[in-house]
Specification:
Layout lengths: L5 E5 L4 H4 L1 H12 L2 E9 L2 H10 L5 H24 L5 E9 L2 H11 L4 E5 L12 H9 L4 E4 L10 E5 L4 H4 L2 H11 L2 E9 L16 H19 L5 E8 L2 E8 L2 E14 L2 H12 L2 E5 L13 H9 L4 E4 L9
Parallel strand pairs: 1-2, 1-4, 2-3, 4-5, 6-7, 6-11, 7-10, 11-12
Antiparallel strand pairs: 5-12, 8-9, 9-10
Helix pairs in contact: 5-6, 10-11
Amino acid sequence: MIEINKILVTTDFSEGSEAAYPVAQKIASSFGSKIDFIHVIPTIKYLNESIKKVGAPLDMNKDIYPKIMQESEHLCAKAMSQYILENNRGEYFVKIDRKPSDAIVEHAEKNEYDMIIMGSRGKHGTRMLRGSTTEKVIRHSKIPVFSVDESVNENKIDNIVIPTDTSHLSLAAFPFAVLLADTYDSSITLLHIIELYGSISEEIPRQPDKGEMISIYEVLIERLNNHLADAGIENLHIQRTGVTYEDQAVITEGEKSRSIPLFTKIEKGVSAHYEIERFAEDQADLVVMATHGHSGLAHLILGSTAEKVAQYVSKPVITLRPEKKLFKK
Protein backbone atom coordinates (compact mmCIF):
# COMPACT_ATOMS: atom_id res chain seq x y z
CA MET A 1 0.00 0.00 0.00
CA ILE A 2 0.97 3.65 -0.39
CA GLU A 3 2.84 5.36 2.42
CA ILE A 4 2.53 8.99 3.44
CA ASN A 5 5.73 9.97 5.18
CA LYS A 6 6.17 13.57 4.05
CA ILE A 7 3.42 16.16 3.59
CA LEU A 8 3.89 19.62 2.09
CA VAL A 9 1.34 22.26 3.12
CA THR A 10 1.17 25.42 1.05
CA THR A 11 0.11 28.66 2.67
CA ASP A 12 -0.39 32.33 1.95
CA PHE A 13 -1.65 32.86 5.55
CA SER A 14 -5.23 33.47 4.40
CA GLU A 15 -8.31 31.79 5.89
CA GLY A 16 -8.52 29.72 2.73
CA SER A 17 -5.06 28.27 3.14
CA GLU A 18 -5.62 27.67 6.87
CA ALA A 19 -8.24 25.05 5.95
CA ALA A 20 -5.37 22.75 4.95
CA TYR A 21 -3.67 22.74 8.36
CA PRO A 22 -6.05 20.48 10.38
CA VAL A 23 -6.44 18.11 7.42
CA ALA A 24 -2.66 17.72 7.22
CA GLN A 25 -2.50 17.08 10.96
CA LYS A 26 -5.24 14.43 10.79
CA ILE A 27 -3.42 12.52 8.03
CA ALA A 28 -0.02 12.96 9.69
CA SER A 29 -1.38 11.59 12.98
CA SER A 30 -2.62 8.48 11.19
CA PHE A 31 0.60 7.79 9.26
CA GLY A 32 3.26 9.29 11.49
CA SER A 33 4.08 11.82 8.77
CA LYS A 34 6.24 14.90 8.94
CA ILE A 35 4.59 18.15 7.81
CA ASP A 36 6.51 20.94 6.11
CA PHE A 37 5.10 24.35 5.22
CA ILE A 38 5.92 26.39 2.14
CA HIS A 39 5.10 30.01 1.36
CA VAL A 40 5.99 31.55 -2.00
CA ILE A 41 6.35 35.31 -2.34
CA PRO A 42 5.46 36.27 -5.92
CA THR A 43 7.88 38.64 -7.59
CA ILE A 44 6.25 41.83 -8.80
CA LYS A 45 7.94 42.62 -12.09
CA TYR A 46 5.88 45.76 -12.77
CA LEU A 47 6.64 47.21 -9.33
CA ASN A 48 10.36 46.46 -9.71
CA GLU A 49 10.50 48.26 -13.04
CA SER A 50 8.42 51.19 -11.77
CA ILE A 51 10.72 51.76 -8.79
CA LYS A 52 13.75 51.76 -11.08
CA LYS A 53 12.15 54.25 -13.48
CA VAL A 54 11.17 56.80 -10.84
CA GLY A 55 14.52 56.48 -9.13
CA ALA A 56 13.04 55.69 -5.74
CA PRO A 57 15.69 55.04 -3.05
CA LEU A 58 14.51 51.48 -2.65
CA ASP A 59 15.82 48.19 -3.94
CA MET A 60 13.29 45.36 -3.98
CA ASN A 61 15.96 42.68 -3.55
CA LYS A 62 17.79 44.48 -0.75
CA ASP A 63 15.09 46.51 0.98
CA ILE A 64 11.70 44.91 0.38
CA TYR A 65 11.96 41.15 -0.16
CA PRO A 66 14.20 40.43 2.88
CA LYS A 67 11.64 42.09 5.16
CA ILE A 68 8.77 40.19 3.54
CA MET A 69 10.71 36.93 3.91
CA GLN A 70 11.44 37.62 7.57
CA GLU A 71 7.76 38.29 8.28
CA SER A 72 6.70 35.24 6.27
CA GLU A 73 9.08 32.99 8.18
CA HIS A 74 7.62 34.31 11.42
CA LEU A 75 4.07 33.56 10.22
CA CYS A 76 5.04 30.05 9.08
CA ALA A 77 6.61 29.26 12.44
CA LYS A 78 3.55 30.64 14.24
CA ALA A 79 1.12 28.61 12.12
CA MET A 80 3.07 25.39 12.59
CA SER A 81 3.29 25.82 16.35
CA GLN A 82 -0.43 26.60 16.54
CA TYR A 83 -1.83 23.89 14.25
CA ILE A 84 0.77 21.09 13.97
CA LEU A 85 1.72 18.74 16.81
CA GLU A 86 5.39 18.81 17.70
CA ASN A 87 6.08 15.19 16.73
CA ASN A 88 4.65 15.83 13.22
CA ARG A 89 6.27 19.23 12.79
CA GLY A 90 8.93 19.48 10.09
CA GLU A 91 10.46 22.54 8.46
CA TYR A 92 9.11 25.65 6.80
CA PHE A 93 10.33 27.18 3.56
CA VAL A 94 9.88 30.68 2.18
CA LYS A 95 10.73 31.23 -1.46
CA ILE A 96 10.54 34.09 -3.95
CA ASP A 97 9.34 33.16 -7.41
CA ARG A 98 7.53 34.73 -10.34
CA LYS A 99 5.18 31.73 -10.50
CA PRO A 100 4.21 30.37 -7.06
CA SER A 101 2.67 27.22 -8.55
CA ASP A 102 5.93 26.30 -10.31
CA ALA A 103 7.92 26.85 -7.12
CA ILE A 104 5.55 24.62 -5.13
CA VAL A 105 5.63 21.79 -7.69
CA GLU A 106 9.42 21.97 -8.07
CA HIS A 107 10.01 21.97 -4.32
CA ALA A 108 7.61 19.07 -3.76
CA GLU A 109 9.18 16.88 -6.44
CA LYS A 110 12.77 17.73 -5.56
CA ASN A 111 12.20 16.84 -1.90
CA GLU A 112 10.10 13.73 -2.64
CA TYR A 113 6.92 14.55 -0.75
CA ASP A 114 4.10 12.02 -0.72
CA MET A 115 1.28 14.58 -0.75
CA ILE A 116 0.65 18.29 -1.21
CA ILE A 117 -2.19 19.74 0.84
CA MET A 118 -3.43 23.22 0.00
CA GLY A 119 -6.45 25.45 0.37
CA SER A 120 -8.77 25.56 -2.63
CA ARG A 121 -8.46 29.32 -2.73
CA GLY A 122 -6.01 31.70 -1.13
CA LYS A 123 -6.16 35.46 -0.83
CA HIS A 124 -7.13 36.04 -4.43
CA GLY A 125 -10.44 34.31 -5.00
CA THR A 126 -11.94 33.68 -8.43
CA ARG A 127 -15.27 32.50 -9.71
CA MET A 128 -13.79 29.00 -9.77
CA LEU A 129 -13.89 27.05 -6.52
CA ARG A 130 -10.17 26.44 -6.95
CA GLY A 131 -8.00 29.49 -7.49
CA SER A 132 -5.40 29.83 -10.22
CA THR A 133 -2.42 28.72 -8.12
CA THR A 134 -4.24 25.61 -6.85
CA GLU A 135 -5.47 24.78 -10.35
CA LYS A 136 -1.94 25.07 -11.77
CA VAL A 137 -0.45 22.90 -9.04
CA ILE A 138 -3.13 20.27 -9.72
CA ARG A 139 -2.36 20.43 -13.43
CA HIS A 140 1.42 20.10 -13.19
CA SER A 141 2.16 18.11 -10.04
CA LYS A 142 3.26 14.48 -10.26
CA ILE A 143 2.53 14.21 -6.54
CA PRO A 144 -1.03 13.79 -5.19
CA VAL A 145 -2.65 17.15 -4.43
CA PHE A 146 -5.34 17.43 -1.75
CA SER A 147 -7.23 20.73 -2.16
CA VAL A 148 -9.64 21.67 0.62
CA ASP A 149 -11.83 24.60 1.60
CA GLU A 150 -13.17 25.98 4.86
CA SER A 151 -16.17 23.63 4.87
CA VAL A 152 -14.11 20.45 5.19
CA ASN A 153 -14.43 18.42 8.39
CA GLU A 154 -11.06 16.74 8.81
CA ASN A 155 -12.56 14.24 11.26
CA LYS A 156 -15.55 13.18 9.16
CA ILE A 157 -15.22 11.83 5.64
CA ASP A 158 -17.98 9.24 5.21
CA ASN A 159 -17.99 8.69 1.45
CA ILE A 160 -15.13 9.00 -1.04
CA VAL A 161 -16.19 9.25 -4.70
CA ILE A 162 -13.95 8.16 -7.58
CA PRO A 163 -15.15 9.26 -11.05
CA THR A 164 -14.13 6.60 -13.55
CA ASP A 165 -14.49 5.97 -17.28
CA THR A 166 -13.55 2.29 -16.62
CA SER A 167 -9.99 2.85 -17.95
CA HIS A 168 -6.83 1.81 -16.10
CA LEU A 169 -5.91 5.50 -15.95
CA SER A 170 -8.98 6.48 -13.96
CA LEU A 171 -8.73 3.39 -11.72
CA ALA A 172 -5.20 4.44 -10.71
CA ALA A 173 -6.87 6.68 -8.12
CA PHE A 174 -8.34 3.69 -6.30
CA PRO A 175 -5.42 2.60 -4.02
CA PHE A 176 -5.00 6.13 -2.70
CA ALA A 177 -8.74 6.37 -2.05
CA VAL A 178 -8.58 3.08 -0.12
CA LEU A 179 -5.73 4.44 1.97
CA LEU A 180 -7.84 7.42 3.04
CA ALA A 181 -11.04 5.38 3.42
CA ASP A 182 -9.17 3.11 5.81
CA THR A 183 -7.96 6.15 7.75
CA TYR A 184 -11.36 7.83 7.96
CA ASP A 185 -13.50 4.66 8.17
CA SER A 186 -15.21 5.74 4.94
CA SER A 187 -17.02 4.00 2.12
CA ILE A 188 -15.96 4.36 -1.52
CA THR A 189 -18.23 4.95 -4.51
CA LEU A 190 -17.10 4.33 -8.08
CA LEU A 191 -19.04 6.78 -10.27
CA HIS A 192 -19.40 6.20 -14.00
CA ILE A 193 -21.41 8.48 -16.28
CA ILE A 194 -22.77 7.20 -19.60
CA GLU A 195 -22.78 10.32 -21.76
CA LEU A 196 -25.53 10.79 -24.30
CA TYR A 197 -23.01 11.41 -27.07
CA GLY A 198 -20.69 8.56 -26.22
CA SER A 199 -18.20 7.45 -23.59
CA ILE A 200 -15.38 4.95 -23.35
CA SER A 201 -17.68 2.32 -21.81
CA GLU A 202 -19.38 1.94 -25.20
CA GLU A 203 -16.64 -0.56 -26.06
CA ILE A 204 -17.77 -2.86 -23.24
CA PRO A 205 -19.84 -5.77 -24.64
CA ARG A 206 -23.43 -5.72 -23.43
CA GLN A 207 -24.94 -8.95 -22.17
CA PRO A 208 -28.59 -9.06 -23.30
CA ASP A 209 -29.71 -10.97 -20.22
CA LYS A 210 -28.09 -8.43 -17.88
CA GLY A 211 -28.59 -5.08 -19.59
CA GLU A 212 -26.29 -2.13 -20.22
CA MET A 213 -25.59 -0.89 -16.71
CA ILE A 214 -24.95 -4.27 -15.10
CA SER A 215 -22.67 -5.21 -18.01
CA ILE A 216 -20.61 -2.05 -17.40
CA TYR A 217 -20.60 -2.66 -13.65
CA GLU A 218 -19.28 -6.21 -13.91
CA VAL A 219 -16.53 -5.24 -16.37
CA LEU A 220 -15.59 -2.27 -14.17
CA ILE A 221 -15.09 -4.48 -11.10
CA GLU A 222 -13.15 -7.01 -13.17
CA ARG A 223 -10.90 -4.25 -14.54
CA LEU A 224 -10.37 -2.88 -11.05
CA ASN A 225 -9.19 -6.24 -9.74
CA ASN A 226 -6.95 -6.65 -12.79
CA HIS A 227 -5.54 -3.16 -12.25
CA LEU A 228 -4.64 -3.94 -8.63
CA ALA A 229 -2.97 -7.19 -9.69
CA ASP A 230 -1.05 -5.50 -12.53
CA ALA A 231 0.10 -2.77 -10.13
CA GLY A 232 1.50 -5.44 -7.80
CA ILE A 233 -0.77 -4.45 -4.90
CA GLU A 234 -1.08 -7.90 -3.38
CA ASN A 235 -2.73 -6.93 -0.10
CA LEU A 236 -5.77 -5.28 -1.70
CA HIS A 237 -8.53 -6.89 -3.75
CA ILE A 238 -12.23 -6.51 -4.50
CA GLN A 239 -14.52 -9.09 -2.98
CA ARG A 240 -17.94 -9.58 -4.54
CA THR A 241 -20.85 -9.76 -2.12
CA GLY A 242 -23.49 -11.11 -4.49
CA VAL A 243 -25.40 -7.83 -4.22
CA THR A 244 -25.31 -5.82 -7.45
CA TYR A 245 -23.38 -2.53 -7.13
CA GLU A 246 -22.35 -3.37 -3.54
CA ASP A 247 -18.95 -4.96 -2.95
CA GLN A 248 -15.99 -4.71 -0.58
CA ALA A 249 -12.39 -3.57 -0.88
CA VAL A 250 -10.46 -6.00 1.31
CA ILE A 251 -7.09 -5.08 2.84
CA THR A 252 -5.04 -8.04 4.01
CA GLU A 253 -2.20 -7.81 6.53
CA GLY A 254 -0.81 -11.22 7.39
CA GLU A 255 -3.63 -13.40 8.69
CA LYS A 256 -5.84 -10.38 9.41
CA SER A 257 -8.04 -8.48 6.99
CA ARG A 258 -10.44 -5.58 7.06
CA SER A 259 -12.98 -4.44 4.51
CA ILE A 260 -14.18 -1.11 3.14
CA PRO A 261 -17.68 -0.81 1.64
CA LEU A 262 -17.44 -0.30 -2.12
CA PHE A 263 -20.43 0.93 -4.09
CA THR A 264 -20.76 1.43 -7.83
CA LYS A 265 -23.04 4.08 -9.26
CA ILE A 266 -23.74 4.24 -13.00
CA GLU A 267 -25.85 7.09 -14.35
CA LYS A 268 -26.73 8.59 -17.71
CA GLY A 269 -26.38 12.26 -18.53
CA VAL A 270 -25.79 14.74 -21.32
CA SER A 271 -22.82 16.30 -19.52
CA ALA A 272 -20.47 14.08 -17.54
CA HIS A 273 -18.90 16.89 -15.52
CA TYR A 274 -22.32 18.24 -14.55
CA GLU A 275 -23.46 14.80 -13.38
CA ILE A 276 -20.24 14.26 -11.43
CA GLU A 277 -20.54 17.67 -9.76
CA ARG A 278 -24.19 17.05 -8.93
CA PHE A 279 -23.50 13.62 -7.46
CA ALA A 280 -20.51 14.88 -5.49
CA GLU A 281 -22.55 17.75 -4.08
CA ASP A 282 -25.16 15.33 -2.71
CA GLN A 283 -23.15 12.21 -1.92
CA ALA A 284 -19.42 12.91 -1.55
CA ASP A 285 -17.28 14.16 1.30
CA LEU A 286 -14.17 13.81 -0.84
CA VAL A 287 -13.52 13.29 -4.57
CA VAL A 288 -10.39 11.38 -5.67
CA MET A 289 -9.41 11.65 -9.35
CA ALA A 290 -6.57 10.57 -11.62
CA THR A 291 -4.77 13.34 -13.50
CA HIS A 292 -3.31 13.38 -16.98
CA GLY A 293 -0.70 16.08 -16.46
CA HIS A 294 -0.34 19.19 -18.60
CA SER A 295 -3.27 18.38 -20.87
CA GLY A 296 -5.77 17.88 -18.08
CA LEU A 297 -7.21 14.88 -16.29
CA ALA A 298 -7.13 11.30 -17.46
CA HIS A 299 -8.69 9.82 -20.59
CA LEU A 300 -12.12 10.49 -22.07
CA ILE A 301 -14.57 11.74 -19.44
CA LEU A 302 -11.52 12.37 -17.33
CA GLY A 303 -10.14 14.79 -19.91
CA SER A 304 -11.57 18.29 -20.07
CA THR A 305 -14.62 17.06 -18.13
CA ALA A 306 -12.71 16.13 -15.00
CA GLU A 307 -10.63 19.29 -15.26
CA LYS A 308 -13.88 21.19 -14.89
CA VAL A 309 -14.85 18.99 -11.96
CA ALA A 310 -11.52 19.71 -10.27
CA GLN A 311 -12.09 23.44 -10.74
CA TYR A 312 -15.73 23.71 -9.78
CA VAL A 313 -16.82 20.86 -7.51
CA SER A 314 -17.66 22.21 -4.07
CA LYS A 315 -16.11 19.33 -2.12
CA PRO A 316 -12.48 18.58 -1.25
CA VAL A 317 -10.60 17.00 -4.16
CA ILE A 318 -7.49 14.84 -4.36
CA THR A 319 -5.84 14.55 -7.75
CA LEU A 320 -3.00 12.18 -8.59
CA ARG A 321 -1.10 11.26 -11.73
CA PRO A 322 -0.93 7.59 -12.83
CA GLU A 323 2.33 5.87 -13.71
CA LYS A 324 3.48 6.42 -17.31
CA LYS A 325 2.96 2.76 -18.26
CA LEU A 326 -0.80 3.11 -17.75
CA PHE A 327 -1.03 5.69 -20.55
CA LYS A 328 -0.16 2.94 -23.02
CA LYS A 329 -3.14 0.74 -22.04
